[in-house]
Structures are given as C-alpha cells and as structure tokens.
Specification:
Strand content: over 45%
Radius of gyration: 23 Å
CATH topology of the largest domain: Immunoglobulin-like
CATH architecture of the largest domain: Sandwich
Number of strands: 28
Distance between the termini: 63 Å
Number of helices: 3
C-alpha cells in the first residue's frame, strides 16, 4: 500500500480539475483463480480521454473485496502511483459524479492527456466475490453484470467450458487454460455467465503461436479453400483486437470519404506502420499522430518500386500499381507500445458513388468496430448489415457496426437527399 500513500501525498501537492471523466477502448479479462477462493484477477485496459487530465478514477465495485496489484502506463510500461479514496474525496478531487457510498482507485497519470489524445492504462486488481464466482455441484460458475463492452473469462487450469450465455469465442491459451470472450453491442450492461467443469485429465497444448505481422488483427481470408478444414488457422481473440475505424462520407459526387483508424504497435523494434491502399482507391492528405503524446509523425506515400527500394515488407511482392502509406516513428522499446491515429482521404469511384441520384457505398469492413457517417443533407434508405443507428453532434446519420466474428462484413449503404 506504500504506493497508495505516496499517491495521496503527491495529490496534496497539486490541484486538478476533471470536468467529466471520459474514456475509450475498454477491455477486461477475468482470470478465475482457485474455485474455493471465489476470487478472480482482473486485467482492465482503458484509455482516459479528458484533454489535460492528470488523474484517472476507476470505480471499485461494491460487494467485492478488492486488492490492487498494480497500475501500468501502457506507453512506457512503467507502474503508476495510485491510492484508494472514498466517494466524497473523489468529488473533492474533481470527479463530481462520484457516488458517496463507493470507493475509487485514483491514479496519477504518467503525463497529462494530450488534446484529442489518450492515456492508456492497464489496471491489475484482484476481487473476491462469492456471488459472482462460486461452485455449483461439480461445476464452477462465473456470473457477473459487465458494463464494459469487450470482455473475456479465463477458466482455472484443468477445467473445460460447458456453458456461456452470450455468443462467445473459445480459445485454448498457451498455458492450456480455456478462455471465452465476447463483445456486447448493446448500450446496456449485460450479465455474462460462464460455466466450467473439472476435467479428469489435463489438456495438452496444441495451439501454435500467432506469427501474423499484425498480431492484434486477423480476419479469415475470403479466398480460402472452403472445401478443406483450416488446419493451420490461428485464432485471434476478436474482443481484444483494438482497431477502431470511422468513415466520414463526403458528398457522393466526389467519390471521397475521410477516415481515421487507431492502431497499437507493441512489437519491439518496429519503427513504422504500413497501410496498403486498396486496389481501385486513391489515398490523399494522410496524417498520423501518436495519441499518447500528440506527436505528429512523418509520412511517405510510396508506389511499387519505391516500396521495394526501401525494403518494406508487405507480405507480398508489390506491383507497379501497389500504393502504400508509410508512417514512421521511433522504434518501439521492449515492454512499451505506441497508439497511432492515422487519418486519410480515400477516393474510390467503384465503391462510393452517386447513382440515379442515390448515394451508394459498398465496402468490406474487416475490423471489429466500424462507424460510417453519412454526408450532410442525406438520409439513410438501405443498410445491409445490422448496425446501431444514431445522430452525430452535427446531426448527421451514423451507423456503428460491431462485428464479433473473425471475418469481414460487406456493408452496402444507400441514401437519398433530404428535401
């Protein structure tokens, strides 16, 4: 608890204002410990987004006994200073929405959150909660209301999964424990119930390490031979993938859309991000920033021979028509990571156009989280893939696609001018 005491002391030396705490990219993994302990270790990944904020508050759920193991700044890999405070103190320290009967984990951030940036955290804590994790005959049950939208549960070693009440991926981890994961695409918290049963014999390891050049992103190749089983397929947990993209459609006569997508690079020594422009598209006005610091990055737009001369590995031999956007940054150090936001304008007359006075947008989306925003003055008439529909702050219609499957979705959107 020494860190907590130091955190409280440092807090007295500074004052700060927290208007309304905001966050993004939340993901939680629940690692179930020995069943008789009724305890589970929580790995909570979250990004604070309040520009200028120097602290972050994490609610400690009532009804659970909690121990804080550590809090890590994901950019540097360094542990952060924290303290546990009551709701009244959290209010005094800027969290005006704090409940008086609740405890909060108050974290001193490694650096103030940059404008339009993030402070990425890993909160490692252990809860004991007999109502959420218990024995039921010869089985174990994890039954808990989860407000976070992306979650996973790791069963104790030597247990098989025999129940999950929401559609879930299942993975045999490297240490032969079974993990279930799911994505909640609703606006409400849901109760996730996972049931496990003890095995008579332990599971032997069979999973192979994922050597994909993009380790947090993989989709099923559309051109695979579907007459044969995928013997070498590497499962990549969909809920954990942290690649979000937003498309802002321009007026359809331009065939153009502005987009931004976020990507985390954590592989030691990597000094660039390569975005391969789809055939038939043209990319212009690229921008890139490190969300952790606000640093603007150098960008090159390269074609065919230029790509080969710079020894940039695309995973295939580039043709003269191949175009790639290359974003350069300082090499990632061991145990550290960088969160990038790449912004570009694409022109694609084959997949985004005006046809018979109707807006048509037809595109394959591979990420697990995708948003498409219609241009000003247009109403939605057709949407092929189920999506959450809402208005932006500017009154534009937007569709949010949460795809918990490992394959891409082909989204067809049509619209008409609002008269």
């Amino acid at each position: 608890m020494k860190r907590g005491i130091i955190g409280a002391f440092l807090l007295l030396l500074s004052t700060f204002t927290l208007a309304q705490q905001t966050q993004t990219d939340s993901y939680t993994q629940y690692e179930l410990l020995a069943p008789d302990s009724h305890s589970f270790r929580i790995y909570y990944y979250v990004s604070a987004t309040n520009a200028g904020a120097t602290h972050y508050f994490n609610t400690l759920r009532k009804g659970s006994e909690h121990d804080i193991n550590k809090v890590v700044d994901l950019m540097t890999g360094k542990e952060l200073i924290w303290t546990i405070v009551e709701g009244a103190e959290a209010r005094k320290n800027g969290l005006t929405s704090a409940a008086l009967d609740t405890e909060y984990l108050q974290i001193v951030l490694a650096r103030p959150v940059p404008k339009n940036g993030q402070a990425r955290l890993l909160i490692d804590k252990t809860y004991k909660d007999e109502k959420s994790y218990y024995n039921q005959g010869d089985t174990i049950v994890f039954d808990r209301s989860l407000g976070i939208k992306r979650n996973s549960v790791v069963l104790p070693k030597g247990y098989e999964v025999i129940g999950a009440n929401y559609p879930s991926q299942v993975e045999l981890t490297d240490n032969t424990r079974i993990k279930t994961s799911f994505m909640n695409n609703s606006d409400q918290a849901v109760t996730y119930k996972v049931t496990g049963r003890k095995l008579k014999k332990p599971i032997t390891a069979s999973a192979q390490k994922n050597n994909s050049p993009w380790p947090d992103y993989q989709e099923t190749p559309s051109g695979r031979d579907k007459s044969k089983a995928r013997l070498d397929y590497q499962l990549n947990e969909r809920a954990f993938q942290n690649r979000d993209i937003t498309y802002y459609l321009q007026q359809p006569e331009t065939n153009a859309f502005r987009l931004f997508h976020d990507y985390t690079e954590k592989r030691e020594g990597i000094d660039k991000y390569v975005n391969i422009v789809r055939a038939g598209s043209k990319a212009t006005d690229p921008e890139a920033v490190i969300l952790d610091t606000g640093e603007q990055l150098k960008i090159d737009t390269l074609n065919g021979e230029q790509i080969s001369k710079k020894n940039i590995d695309l995973g295939f031999e580039p043709t003269p028509e191949t175009e790639a956007i290359v974003i350069w940054f300082d090499p990632v150090k061991k145990g550290q990571s960088k969160r990038l936001r790449i912004t570009e304008t694409y022109t694609d007359p084959n997949r985004y156009l005006l046809h018979n006075n109707e807006l048509v947008w037809d595109r394959s989306l591979g990420r697990n989280r995708n948003t498409v925003v219609l241009p000003d003055g247009w109403l939605l008439t057709t949407n092929s893939i189920p999506a959450k529909i809402s208005l932006t702050a500017e009154g534009k219609v937007q569709m949010r696609y949460i795809n918990d499957r490992p394959d891409a979705i082909d989204v067809l959107i049509k619209g008409k001018r609002r008269k």
